[in-house]
């Protein structure tokens, strides 16, 4: 599979499951209605795990422009692939959001809360303060990208050839669990202020879908806040890459 197609599909799966769990909790007359924040955090963690499991072997499963920027700044990814990765992620996020809408269409119709409908597409702060909201997104994304940059597979000493060598142990699908757990932890600890976008594509692509789709009783797409979950994660990623390089 082409790496860009893999990023598109991986990001679409991420948004389908991630925004899907928000829709399940927030929209009326769903099986999961009112299940709460823990379910949303767990759902996003499992969404990341599933997306990484599906496309990790092909593209590395960045599924996030902040991760792509971070690994490129850290010298671990080719800059000429960055634009294509980010474009694929944005398209995938839009596609995933559209599928969530189609999946829960009747529940959108049954839900009167316009803010709740928007929440199934994009993030918003519980207390609006652009400076602090930006800081929260930067800090949360710093944790994500720094953890990604520090992840390494276990290894063992191998001396059968006469010269000791360190042999990495491939973890396969189990390795994807680590990133999912990091996202779960971020949501539990740092998600209470802004809803932890920590991913420009995750917010911008679905926000655009919300603006375009014929959702009954929807409100505006809150474009006045839209820059925060894009710029904040990119700042956090750059800081994580810098610390990884100097430490």
Name the beta content range: under 5%
E-strand count: 2
CATH architecture: Up-down Bundle
- CATH topology value: Glycerol uptake facilitator protein
CATH class: Mainly Alpha
Q: Would you list the SSEs in sequence order as H and E?
A: HHHHHHHEEHHH
Structural class: mainly alpha
Question: What keywords describe this structure?
Answer:
single chain, 247 residues, mainly alpha, Glycerol uptake facilitator protein, two-stranded antiparallel ribbon, 2 strands, globular
Summary of the model, kept short:
The protein is mainly α and 247 residues long. It has helices at 3-26, 37-59, 65-73, 82-103, 105-110, 114-119, 130-150, 175-190, 200-212, 228-246, and strands at residues 155-158, 165-168. The protein has a single domain, classed as Glycerol uptake facilitator protein, CATH 1.20.1080.
Kindly describe this structure:
With 247 residues, the protein is mostly helical. It has a single domain, classed as Glycerol uptake facilitator protein. Strands 1-2 form a two-stranded antiparallel ribbon. β1 and β2 form a beta hairpin. α3 runs antiparallel to α4 and α7 packs across α10. The longest helix has 24 residues. The radius of gyration is 19 Å and the shape is globular. The mean pLDDT is 93.
Produce the secondary structure layout.
Blueprint: H1 3-26, H2 37-59, H3 65-73, H4 82-103, H5 105-110, H6 114-119, H7 130-150, E1 155-158, E2 165-168, H8 175-190, H9 200-212, H10 228-246
Antiparallel strand pairs: 1-2
Helix pairs in contact: 1-2, 1-4, 2-8, 3-4, 3-7, 3-10, 4-9, 7-8, 7-10, 9-10
